[in-house]
Amino acid sequence: MRKIFRATIFSSLLFFYTGLFAQQQRFEWKEATEDGYTYTYVSNDPTSARFYKLKNGLTVILSPSKKEPRIQTYIATKAGSKTDPKDHTGLAHYLEHMLFKGTDKFGSLNWQEEKPLLDKIDALYEKYNSTKNELDRKNIYKEIDSISGEAAKFAIPNEYDKLMSNMGAEGTNAFTSFEQTVYIENIPNNVVDKYLTVQAERFKSPVLRLFHTELEAVYEEKNIALDNDGRKAVESMFEAIFPNNNYGKQTVIGTVDHLKNPSLKAIRAYYDTYYVPNNMGIIMSGDFDPTEMVKKIDRAFSYMKTKEVPAYTFEQEKPIVKPIIREVKGPNTEFLFLGFRFPGAASKDAQMLNLMANILTNGSAGLIDLDLLKSQKLLGAGAFPYVLKDYSMLILQGNPSQGQSLEEVRDLLLAELKKLRNGDFSEDLIKSIINNERKDQITRNESYSDRAEELMSAFTSEVDWASELAYTDRLTTITKADLVAFANKYLSDDNYVVVYKRQATDDNVVKVEKPAITPITVNRDAQSDFLQKVNAMPEESIQPIWVDYDKEIAKGKQGDSDILAVKNKDNALFSLTYQYSLGKWDNKLLGLAVDYFEFLGTQSKSSETFSKEFYKLASTFSISAGNEETRVSITGLNENFKPTVLLIQDLLRNCVADESAFQAYLSRLKKSRANAKENKASIMEGLKSYAKYGTKNPFNYTFTDAELDQVKAADLVGLLHDLSKMKYTILYYGPLTVKELVSQTPPLKAEKTAYVVPKKGIRFEEQATTANQVLFANYNMKQVEVFWFRNSDVYNAINTPTISLFNTYFGGGMGSIVFQTIRESKALAYSTYAYFGQPAKKENHYSVGAYVGTQTDKFNDAIGGMNELLNVLPESAIALETAKVSLLKSIASERVLNAGILNSYIAAKRLGNSKDMRKEVYEQTPNLNYNDLKNFHAKELSNKPYVYCIVGESSSLPKENLEKIGPVKVLSLEEIFGY
After folding, report:
1. Portions of the chain given CATH number 3.30.830.10
2. What is the spatial distance between Cα 918 and Cα 764, in angstroms, rounded to a whole number?
3. Which residue in 221, 541, 667, 759 has its CB near the most CB atoms, within 10 A?
4. R_g of the chain computed on alpha carbons
């Protein structure tokens, strides 16, 4: 399931201007008919979207483009957790999972034999649901498990994924939210007929097979949620702010009690009620003829029958007249949410909410950006609109700095809202927001997925597309007085909900316990007649296009500095990067310097002034330091190219030390470093680095707190000044030719002095993995996370085709051997994968990585299950052929475009390659066989020593249990982080 916290759709539904303050265009609904199909469209729509309503009520939204031969598809149902039955919460989410299990036509070896067993399982679940005695329930579940094992002999797990993989589909997924359930695919455009055949069958009569193993996956997802402090805080916010609406009364995954008592009968009833054509939409963006596409969709889905959908009704929420306070406990660092309620998505007030949020937070020049982040009063803060159909919200998040209480954070955020209500901001900020929205829309319109997602969100939220497109035009009519009146209407010092996320043990968390499940048969080499029929359907071939770096990349010089440039032929956006051969390994101070840079100004301009000026130009700047290189980057509109370049050069050359900003930065840095120690993902990254490099590694190559206190602001500024005097490579993507670029880009090094030559520092060597070892870090959590790691041989380009196919076959997706075995067959994890990793540089080593996130009571089984796969490669002729086809079709339909050409070239150069290695993979993959993969597996994975990086609760994972794997090293946080 995708992350629930979704940004408002309004920030991305903006139209393409051709001038800084272009004359307003009209966005009006119009109607047209072509080949017997009537559709509506909006004039001047940059997405060129057509909106069809088929005879059975099915909505079809098509946004054509010719950029690459692929199509982003969404099939959306306007139903989610909000419409779950109150006695079966989480049901919509269950159903989402089950719609990957097939029908009577696919996913089954023998439907006549399978169906009676599934009917028995149905009846047993109803009996289980109504039984209260725990002993009786266990006995019933044993029977469910037993019959499920028998039924599984007739099932073909993951046949849906095999169908899609055989088409070259990517991003196969789905998500459930409050009022939408959406099924996602990205397909080559030559397999549309196959895709529609599968989808039409998928939604015709889904079969709830393999239910108890998938139910265990949902249990795991629930346990992950129980370990996620952010999610708990969001759910607490919704519960408090929407006491009368199911936004707050029910959660997407559902309650533990309901998860333990599923009803297949209720799931089918839900499907029959909401999965009807007049409640569904098919949204596509990509390379296709919309007239031909709608005909195909109509033929495929004409079987669907219109059915009245019950309207969701709810009691209106009462106004909040005094602060509502909630607390959430968990191991992560403290933060808070402030929430204010607003009208729903279709209202103009919801659009106004988006503008108001941008006044508060826009990443550069908002009130919160400047007053709380730039001035370093908080570690982190932001304001985010959250738009839903019935209501919207403004949510403010605040992260305390060193020594701050959450109550102090609340007061600082409320003070910014008071400034908003009092009009303490410049009217020019609205103009800057318009300019930035215009630029962002150009960026988003390049992406098939962004376009399709915007259209899908508008459909499920039932907002008017013409109104959305006209939003930016309307911004030009909004005054500061309008915003101030709006803020005073909806925001006060009393009408909010505050959720304090405290750092403490949550004694109320009760995880979903592991039921007894017998591993099921996976039938890897089985195929339904339906799959074979779909695979046999004709399709036109797509010819791959390889990147010719010599043709695609123009090269030039600016003085002694190299220029690598790719021309933007599509629009007026640019990106320019100064790349340096200097990294944090060369100078530990560099990481501090690039972070400190954000808070610096010059003698004549403050840091705040720079932020405002960049934002006015609709430009951004960033500076990042990697281990061995540093990049200073700017992006923006071509018309503002030169002033943007001059701004970043001025700041880099002339920044001055600000002692108060430096002391605030150090304080925030120490707090941020302390927070990292309380984050399980950061801890795991530290363990991986320890496994790869040993005791002294890049992750803990840092300053102690005492050493930080000795750092001087002047040293950091001096290092930044040195960047303006070092040799660099310019990486450019934009409308200018190299000649124009040189003429419009003054050299960064202004003086005619010798270049500053950076000194090379430490180089960390990857350590050979010679014996099993356990690296363990204690963390208060319900789950346990395990990552297998080993270093292998040095990079050799000749291995690339075999590695590419091996990863696709073994551990690279829901149809892979690892996923099918660990999750589908044994129900040991919600998330699992494995890979043979390519290094970034030719002198570096390959690595093996594998992951399982599981419950502590399944730890031994999960370890054993993954080790078995690492030692013995299962053979499946069907899975191998599917992996080949998937890999070849993905490569053939992939287009390396825009700035991606530069990134591809640089990556190839680091590995010593002068050509696009995809060509080698494409040409050699058809000749590879199982023995090639088996020999590779035996050489690189089988019976090899591994470092087991484990993050979990020590009380649930006794050391003697871990010692069965290998010698255990319990690492302290100081050993992991270096401070």
Report:
1. 314-503, 549-744, 773-977
2. 30
3. 221
4. 29
The reported pLDDT for the residue numbered 21 is 36
Are 795 and 838 in contact by the 8 Å Cβ rule? The answer is yes
- From residue 725, alpha-carbon distances to 540, 542, 595, 750, 792 in Å are 54, 48, 19, 8, 39
pLDDT band at 19; cut points 50, 70, 90: very low
pLDDT given at position 630? 98
Question: What CATH superfamily is the domain 773-977?
Answer: Metalloenzyme, LuxS/M16 peptidase-like (3.30.830.10)
For domain 89-157+193-273+512-542, the CATH architecture is: 2-Layer Sandwich (3.30)
pTM of the entire structure? 0.93
Closest CA to 512 of 736, 153, 782: 782
549-744 topology per CATH: Cytochrome Bc1 Complex; Chain A, domain 1 (3.30.830)
Please give the angle made by the CA atoms of 535, 536 and 541, to the nearest 5 degrees. 85
Q: What is the 3-state secondary structure (H, E, C) of 317-373?
A: CCCCCCCEEEEEEECCCCEEEEEEEEECCCCHHHHHHHHHHHHHCCCCCCHHHHHHH
Quick one: residue 220, left, alpha or beta (phi over 0 = left, psi -120 to 50 = alpha)?
A: alpha
314-503 folds as: Cytochrome Bc1 Complex; Chain A, domain 1 (3.30.830)
- CA–CA dist 292, 200 (Å, integer): 17
pLDDT digits (tens, 9 = 90+) for 646-697: 999 999 999 999 999 999 999 999 999 999 999 999 999 999 999 999 999 9
Q: For the purposes of burial, counting CB atoms within 10 Å of the CB of 18, is it exposed (0-12), middle (13-18) or buried (19 or more)?
A: exposed
Residue of 549, 540, 567, 541 whose CA lies nearest to 919: 549
